[in-house]
Amino acid sequence: TQYSFKEVFGTLVVQKELFDVVAKPLVEDLIRGKNGLLFTYGVTGSGKTHTMTGSPGDGGLLPRCLAMIFNSIGPFQAKRFVFKLDDKNGVDVQSEVDALLERQRREALPIPKTPAGKRQLDPEFADMIDVQDHCKVEEVDEDNVYGVFVSYIEIYNNYIYDLLEEAPFDSIKPKWNSCNTPVRNGDFVPPQSKILREDQNHNMYVTGCTEVEVKSTEEAFEVFWRAGQKKRRIANTQLNRESSRSHSVFIIKLAQAPLDADGDNVLQEKEQIVLSQLSLVDLAGSERTNRTKAEGNRLREAGNINQSLMTLRTCIEVLRENQLYGTNKMVPYRDSKLTHLFKNYFDGEGKVRMIVCVNPKAEDYEESLQVMRFAEMTQEVEVARPVDRPLCGLTPGRRLRNQAFREELSRKLELRGGPVGAGPEEQSAAELFFQSFPPLPSCELLDINDDQTLPKLIEALEQRHKMRQMLAEEFSKNVLAFKTVLQEFDSSIASKENYIQGKLTEKEKTITGQRTELERLEKKIKTLEYKIEILEKTATIYEEDKRNLQQELESKSQKLQRQASDKRRLEARLQGMVTETSLKWEKECERRVAAKQLEMQNKLWVKDEKLKQLKAIVTEPRAERPERPSRGREREKPLPRSVSPSPAPGAPAAPLRPRRSRSVGERWVDHQ
């Protein structure tokens, strides 16, 4: 059996090569504001978790994605709590002062802190995140600030649980006593299943899920490993010693907002914030219970795992059918929490990629065929949709200009040793002014009759007072001039604002008209789609009728052909019978004609004989006339009969006629 895939990786492929081909484009799209979804799919024990997390010394896809994100946005990260996620799958932005107050308030609360990236890492996973290639995204928008949030959930028995939620250790499995009943413990609080909701943009999210803001790869992976991976449900089966009994989803959210026109602070506009996310999903392996020998809870877990994977397959098949045949069948997302959570990705909200893990064991042959058949089918589904990013309207390069200005300001301050003046003329006038101040004379009185020290001090103070008045007058003039400039600037800004407001009003009217036109066109499209659907149904009915009529026509034509052939056979048969009958009657007629001719000849011969006899009788000599006997005597004495020759053989016998007595002149004899 042959299957075709976009890329095939052998057993000796390292994690970096797999990451560069599969996951790196998803990270690039994440930083550019697009969503991404990455699955690892396969039979149990085929290496899905190893592909996602990796091993010591060779990190998997998840740590490499985190490293690439922070290598790319490291210098441009916002301070903690500048971005705040709300409970409706949105994000807010606040000023750095509010963020500082938030940090101080959080530090004062007696709550466990998120893992810090500066402390020493746990050697259990330190080698997994030690990525040496320093991969990063090129052309990152430097005029934006970024914030990274991570969350970790699992889907167990079709219920969603938050793995980062603060809960007692081993709260998933309560303690059992000898009577096989759970121990009543007031401190034990079982984890609550989370609910899926839809935000205002029709994106699905998990309500009340813990989302932690992280600032480094180490901090993010420590959250994943310590807080989440330790709580994930695994069990020992016949096929895998550490078999995942749930689908785990690690979600990386990236919030980015532009800097203001000065390039110093974050722009305080929520509409300009772009929130994108990358979901890394480690699916539980499909398995057959007759091979795993699962019982009890393991059997129930396997049933739920297989059911969710079957729902995923059904959704992909319906999407493929809708795409190939242009149908509009409803995709059954709600049949499983897994497909319901990622409904938006299948509707075109982001790029979806799937890694199929295959174990070459002979025992996994049937399951591997099913997995590869499904994975090959998913390649034919394309539901991409463009994502519109909000336009900022500010000049690019603001951050670099702000940094250059600060560096130049610091350099001037270092050269001058004080604040920088406004211009060269004002600097020289100020220097001359300060140099023109008369030095204060000595104020020490050594003699009661000293009349020179106080007048000199009074004169110096008067001169300083006059200079102060001159400075105050000049400052007032400058203030008035500056106020005039500010008023002119305000009026120009007001006029520009009015002009911009008018333009915005016109644009809004245009947009409203375009929206109305779009709604009209959408309604028209829906009407046309409905008409097309009706026409397709009508065409289908007509085609069915056409096929039926064609079949009926073909059957009737075949029947007519059979009748024509029967008619031809009957005509041939009748023709043969007519020919045979005509020949028979011809022969019969000839026979009858011959018989008739022979009969006529016999009759003629008989007549000739009669005539001869009659002639002989007539011409017989009469010597004397005998007496006429009486009739009684004639009757008593019969006359002798002459013997005539027999007729020809085959001639019909002449009918017998009764004889009667006649006179001598009329007597005649009939012969047989």
Automatic annotation (TrEMBL):
Localization: Cytoplasm, Cytoskeleton
Domain Kinesin motor per the UniProt entry, residue ranges: 1-381
GO biological process, one term: mitotic spindle midzone assembly
Sequence positions that bind ATP: G42, V43, T44, G45, S46, G47, K48, T49
Keywords: ATP-binding, Coiled coil, Cytoplasm, Cytoskeleton, Microtubule, Motor protein, Nucleotide-binding
Entry's Gene Ontology molecular function annotations: ATP binding; ATP hydrolysis activity; microtubule binding; microtubule motor activity
SUPFAM superfamilies: P-loop containing nucleoside triphosphate hydrolases (SSF52540)
Disordered as annotated region, ranges: 617-672
Keyword match Coiled coil: yes
Coiled-coil stretches noted in the UniProt entry, renumbered to this chain: 504-573
Basic and acidic residues: bias regions: 621-639, 663-672
Stored InterPro entries: Kinesin-like_fam (IPR027640), Kinesin_motor_CS (IPR019821), Kinesin_motor_dom (IPR001752), Kinesin_motor_dom_sf (IPR036961), P-loop_NTPase (IPR027417)
Highest taxon listed in the record's lineage: Eukaryota
Cellular component aspect of the GO annotation: kinesin complex; microtubule; nucleus
UniProt KW Oxidoreductase keyword: no
One Pfam family in the UniProt entry: Kinesin
PANTHER family, A to Z: KINESIN-LIKE PROTEIN KIF23 (PTHR24115:SF600), KINESIN-RELATED (PTHR24115)
Family: Belongs to the TRAFAC class myosin-kinesin ATPase superfamily. Kinesin family.
Record protein name field: Kinesin-like protein
Organism: Tichodroma muraria
